Amino acid sequence: MSVTKLWVLRHGDAEEPGLGPDAERELTELGRDEARAAGAALAALSVKPDIVLASPRVRAQQTAMLATAELETGFETHLPLSGGFGAQDALSVLAGRAGQTVVLVGHMPDLAIVVRDLSGANVALRTGGLALLRGAGAAFELAVLLRPRESRAISGEDASQTT
After folding, report:
1. What's this model's pTM, rounded to 2 decimal places?
2. Which of 57, 63, 156, 162 shows the smallest number of beta carbons within 10 Å?
3. Is residue 161 a part of any domain in this protein?
């Protein structure tokens, strides 16, 4: 059976809640840097996504736009990633994609729950954090967990920033 790669990317740092509707919160400058670093790290790792899906929330859309620019690819909006996205949703996305590379751009706690339910690993994804699950069918393992600091180091950027 072909190995499927599922990358999950938490949106970058966003404006504080309460300044407007949650779905409209934008990335901060730090968040934009985190999104670019995640995309640059994926590019440095020679990741070539077959599909990138992003939550419709503004901060996830901005993260996807900046990350995919580094990968020289596009992304699609996937409404279920807006909230309540779970392992069954992820498996539905992966159905028929054996051997492919899929990137999901979304939110906590959903992404951590997907990682836990598919691999058994308990993770806390920081803003701009990446996790790679590898597997086949419904059996996955956590292969990589990156904070923005590691993403910057992989991509050759200055890793001395605080995240």
Report:
1. 0.95
2. 162
3. no
